[in-house]
Amino acid sequence: MNKLVGATLKIGKLVAVIIIEKLTLLLKVIGVRASFYILTIVALYYYYHQKSLDVLLPIIIGIFISDLIKSLYENFLMVKEDKLKTTHSMSYLLDIYQNNYKKELVLNESGIEFLYNESFVNQKDFKIIIEDAPSKMFDPDPLIKSSYSEIMKAHKGSYIKNFETVRLDGYTLNETARTLTLSTSRSNFYNHLLTNRAIDYEFEPGLSVRKIFEYGPRLNNFETTKMSNHIGINGIVQLSDGFTILPRRGTNATYSKNKMTASIASPLISSHDKNGTVELTYEGLKNEVKSLLNSRLYIDAETINDSSVEVIFLGFGREVYEGGKPQFYFLVKLNSLSSQDYLQILKDKKKEMKHNKSIDKDSNLYICDLLSLKLKKNYSGSVECINYYTDKIKFKSVEFSFLANVWHLKEAGHLEHFKVDQVANENIINLEMQKKQGEQLKKSV
Fold this sequence. Notes:
Layout: H1 2-30, H2 32-85, H3 90-96, E1 102-107, E2 110-115, E3 117-121, E4 127-137, H4 142-146, H5 148-152, E5 164-174, E6 179-188, H6 189-194, H7 209-213, E7 232-239, E8 244-249, E9 264-267, E10 272-273, E11 276-277, H8 282-295, E12 309-319, E13 325-334, H9 339-348, H10 350-355, E14 362-368, E15 374-375, E16 381-384, E17 392-395, H11 400-411, H12 422-444
Parallel strand pairs: 4-6, 7-13
Antiparallel strand pairs: 1-2, 3-12, 5-6, 7-9, 8-14, 10-11, 12-13, 15-16, 16-17
């Protein structure tokens, strides 16, 4: 009997938490003005009763419905925006690129197909050399520049700002000398929004950047492409007890809205000092990855010893969906930071996370068991996480560069090391679920 009562209470709490969460989401969609309208109606009824309600209530309801329709339409455009500017249609892209670039990632006995053009799968004995030209700036094609305003309309549902980025101009692989030489220069984020990130947006009927410049059957070489092609940094973090950190992108991101991504997913931003643009080196590249632990995951440098952070370069390749944009993939091992330590960081940094206005901001950061990741053919799936009110997070889609990051992890033999103690994991999940439910219920009172 006690077990039945306990189970009933647990289910009741869970249902209450879900209802509160959905109502909160609805309020965010409708906006703050909805609260004002509701409070106004209640106040009018309380103070003036039927007489005022007969006159004002229809007006208030009309304004409320108008705002609701507008807000829902704006949210619909945000959801639709990603598909308009960058297609994810496998059949369409396979037709363009004649079945090139198809990859399969097998997770939990399930094979997931995606498109990816690997350029280099790192081997430990390779030396990485960067030949940087910091004063060289990418200049978009005149046709793209002439359609600047029209193409930028593709991002009207996204938070955007401009900054200087590092562009990959080309690379040379020398198997005999065991060296990889990367040639880099500079571009800016707006150039990226005009090219890679809006590659399928039709700025004129039947015309898009892909149809004009990247029409297949293969991607253009780095040396001849008209794309901005700044380097994207993707890194999967491994905490000391085997957990990883998986963000969910926010609704105003320029790409992958509401999708699960790699722990770190960011453009490589050009560094500057008092003398101007800093020349990029391989050590500088790895230091930039470390700096993203703070800017993307809120892990202060003081929290972890530099010697306890391992940045392992897994390789790089080209994002077919964005017209060949280069993505550099890393494994970042935090040997002195556990899942419990990071839970505390998330609690301590709540205010900072709320007010962060970085580009492509994440809406949530989850601490997860990477080996529990399950994906369906349509890229929806689930993963077990310890800081969610249920033991599994279900999501509608993942960012494709995240799949490529996991693919590189697996190719390098690192994926199998993401093992967590299952008994300890269940205890942590149960404890965090209870805390989360308690916090949600307190907010509702």
